[in-house]
Amino acid sequence: MSTPVSEAAEAQVAIDVDRVSKIFPGEDAVRALDDVSVGIRRNEFFTLLGPSGCGKTTLLRIIAGFEPPTMGALRLDGTDISRLAPDQRPINTVFQNYALFPHMSVARNIGFGLEMLGKPKREVNETVDRMLKLVQMEALKSRKTSALSGGQQQRVALARALAPHPRVLLLDEPLSALDLKLRKEMQIELKRLQSETGITFIFVTHDQEEALTMSDRIAVMRDGRILQIGSPRDIYQRPAERFVANFIGESNFLDATLSAGHVTLKAGGGAFAVTAPPGVADGPVSVLVRPEHAAVRAGSPAGDELPATIRNVVYSGDATTIHLELGSGELFKAKMSNSTGGGATLPSQGEPAVVTIAPGAVTVLKD
Ligand SMILES: Nc1ncnc2c1ncn2[C@@H]1O[C@H](COP(=O)(O)OP(=O)(O)OP(=O)(O)O)[C@@H](O)[C@H]1O
Ligand SMILES: [Mg+2]
């Protein structure tokens, strides 16, 4: 019997991917998706994150209806949509290459889909004007799309996909062709568009920073499977496995021993209280410490501090990264903010130092 909480969560689900697998047949058959289940909520900015070839585009194509699943079910607001053709699903896609009509004006590109649906001209014009305003392209409405910058084309592609007001918008690495500055601007723009329209966005990227800054929740994928689903904070601070920790942010992996809710590092220091993930038994474990959760100072260790030797000090403006070798021989990175004067009084290369790890900063990993 389900609890009221899970019923409430279920009621919010827009796209329900239920045990979907996809095998591309052939001599060297590929299992592109392997028993994937995820419930994507209404009005959510949901991101699929993972390395090249992990199955992100395949999952989007199945949701959009361009590809049938080999196994499993797909529901939208509780209704099975797996047999509907793409144009019968209230779902639109923004592809990586935009696929605009180059010789048509901005306005016609945006209105084209609505015209094809046979909407009255007045309604098409009104919607186009609203979309132009939304993506801030009113001034360029008569320009051919072949004469637009990459970022402007991107906004037209978005406006075109949003015009029929789909319930779900799929975005497959839509920002990857843009330079860094424009990319950052468009990230903010996309967030704004999502919250203003209330449409569920399913966004694909292999850029971890982009995923962290934009998403309500992230699914981290590898080899056709979802390893972890959570908020950016969850995924960053409590990665379930080494792959997730390694893929997102910078990491130190250390050998340790788990015993009764505490770990002792091979490198020394005291016992750290931890919550081990389910299935991890007492004994040797691998733990994660993020570089920004460690501090370094000169001197000899006292209490829970770890002895270390400085290998390299790298200044990067806002922060200083200190590369060390711990007493155990393990290499370790600590990152200290320069605003707190962190890196100013460090010992030099080759000198002894001590490392302090912040309480709660040690995470046990399921390897
Ligand atoms: N039509 C197809 N026929 C055979 N194999 C395919 C087909 N489409 C995708 N694949 C394979 O399925 C796997 C997943 O591909 P997919 O395009 O979903 O990856 P992705 O996560 O989107 O990667 P990228 O970040 O490079 O875009 C890959 O091994 C790919 O080679
Ligand atoms: Mg892809």
UniProtKB/TrEMBL annotation:
Species name: Marinibacterium profundimaris
Gene Ontology MF: a single term: ATP hydrolysis activity
A Gene Ontology cellular-component term: ATP-binding cassette (ABC) transporter complex
Family: Belongs to the ABC transporter superfamily. Spermidine/putrescine importer (TC 3.A.1.11.1) family.
E.C. no: 7.6.2.11
Catalysed reactions, semicolon-separated: ATP + H2O + polyamine-[polyamine-binding protein]Side 1 = ADP + phosphate + polyamineSide 2 + [polyamine-binding protein]Side 1
InterPro entries in the cross-refs: AAA+_ATPase, ABC_SmlMolc_Importer, ABC_transporter-like_ATP-bd, ABC_transporter-like_CS, Mo/tungstate-bd_C_term_dom, P-loop_NTPase, PotA-like, Transp-assoc_OB_typ2
SMART domains found in the cross-reference section: AAA (SM00382)
Keywords on record: ATP-binding, Cell membrane, Membrane, Nucleotide-binding, Translocase, Transport
The keyword Transport is assigned to this record: yes
GO BP annotations listed: putrescine transport
UniProt cross-references to PANTHER family, sorted A to Z: SPERMIDINE/PUTRESCINE IMPORT ATP-BINDING PROTEIN POTA, SPERMIDINE_PUTRESCINE IMPORT ATP-BINDING PROTEIN POTA
SUPFAM superfamilies attached to this UniProt entry: MOP-like, P-loop containing nucleoside triphosphate hydrolases
Protein function: Part of the ABC transporter complex PotABCD involved in spermidine/putrescine import. Responsible for energy coupling to the transport system.
Coiled coil: none
Protein name: Spermidine/putrescine import ATP-binding protein PotA
Subunit organization: The complex is composed of two ATP-binding proteins (PotA), two transmembrane proteins (PotB and PotC) and a solute-binding protein (PotD).
Residue ranges annotated for the ABC transporter domain, each copy included: 15-248
Domain of life: Bacteria
